[in-house]
Write a structure and sequence with these properties.
By secondary structure, this protein is α/β, with parallel strands linked by helices. Helices cover about 30% and strands about 15% of the residues. The protein contains 17 helices and 22 strands. Strands 13-12-11-5-2-1-15-14 form an eight-stranded parallel sheet. A hairpin with a 2-residue loop joins β17 and β18. α12 runs parallel beside α16 and α13 runs antiparallel to α14.
Amino acid sequence: MDFADKVIYQLYPKSFYDSNGDGIGDLRGIIAKLDYLQALHIDMIWFNPFFVSPQNDNGYDIADYRRIDPRFGTMADFEELVRKLRAANIGVMLDMVLNHTSTAHPWFQRALAGDKKYQAYYYLRDPKPNGDLPTNWESKFGGVAWAPFGDTGKYYLHLYDKTQADLDWHNPDVRREAADIVNFWRDKGVRGFRFDVLNVIGKDEQLVDAPAGVESKTLYTDTPVVHQYIKELAAASFGQEDDSITVGEMSSTSLPNAIGYTNPANKELSMVFQFHHLKTDYEDGNKWTRARYDFDYLRQLLHDWGEGISAGDGWQALFWNNHDQPRALNRFGNIDHYRVRSAQVLAASIHLSRGTPYIYMGEEIGMSDPDYTSMQDYVDIESHNAYAELLAAGKTADEAFAIVHAKSRDNSRTPMQWDSSQNAGFTTGTPWLKPTNQDLVNVHDELEHGRIFNFYQRLITLRKRYAVIARGDYRAFGTDVDWLYAYKRRLNQEGLLVLNNFADHEIKFTIPDDWCGGKVIIDNVPGFQLQPEITLPAFSTVAIYRNDLND
């Protein structure tokens, strides 16, 4: 696994840096900040979509897979960006949204115009004999998953927004189109691909109702044919190169499926994103609720997946943040009293683990959720739909807003905070989404005297220096100690013991005597003494290394 020692940075182009003052981040803005990105020592950047799009779902509704949306720049800008990143030894990972297209895409428009070839690209179905929708499936963005297909009397499936029509992967023409799109960008020098909602492409040809009490997603998630489709796509595109790095977004996936997707023998994907650990603050499994996260449940999930993926020779993407999640500091840390140490614990807990760590834009300086006060501050369509549904369910306006405020995807999409100025140094115009706390957290201050950015630098360096971090196995440790997330890594005679206190108070516990002879390679505890009886202050982390372990 040539990617085992790599660290990937996720960059949301719309919010990174605006070079022309229109309030929207762009490719030239990224080029202008290459020195900053290079200083972090990352190996690859995953770019959220910047293709032509109506932007109903912030670029995940693609109308042209082969063109740069003019609001982000030109193909020449992209090609320059790839060249300059290559010169800095940083690879490019693009977001491939191949489960659905925008309804503005020429394929869908030609289907609407009556072209039978392109009608076969989508799930078009007649209503039931009684006039009901084809199935009782729900959209993941709220409401029903079907919309009228023009004036034909048929309906088209949209698992997400109604402007995102699901593609029918049973059609070999659709699968060939997908490979052609990947190959187009391979020819541009792209070697990384992140596949959006990839484990829902395997819907049955005959769509049926979800039984009463059963969520419709169980009918189309992780079906066996998904593995077949991925293998075919790999053989026709990215699998033809040894240096490709691929990751599938696999919502609600299972551990056995994740191993199947990523075991090298299966020739499918390099790694997967799974989200179970980010649902530990969902009340009764419902995202749109307010609840403190369950640490014991979080720890158990991290251990189950860490040990299970390791035993099955699979690989996972390790992350706390992305463009669809509220900031992890607000969810799992204490931003009021331990912002810096919370950020360091979150970083160490995944960067020293088994898998490929991802850093989401702003995470490396300790950005947190915005201090919004009104629904008018939010742009995200899912957030507005959720707010309306919460009101309809009987929540007061204040209650509904508080829930959206805690869970909105826009929480992570606010502009990168470069300095403490009014627009956070992001734009000279009006930002598409406003920042709110740049006076407390920004790049300029962090690089001048912060302790988070350089902690990430150290973690990335350690992954490249110690083979046990990059390639060792994973074993749970200390599960009987409240608020301790700890694990051991092992590769031949090398060993690593990682201790993380997720509490806002100190914890005490005992470590095996043989680890007392190890070396602390990173910690955030001033004056830490390595001894059998360990005292970890609030939100602290320690990693102990040995290179002389016996079998």
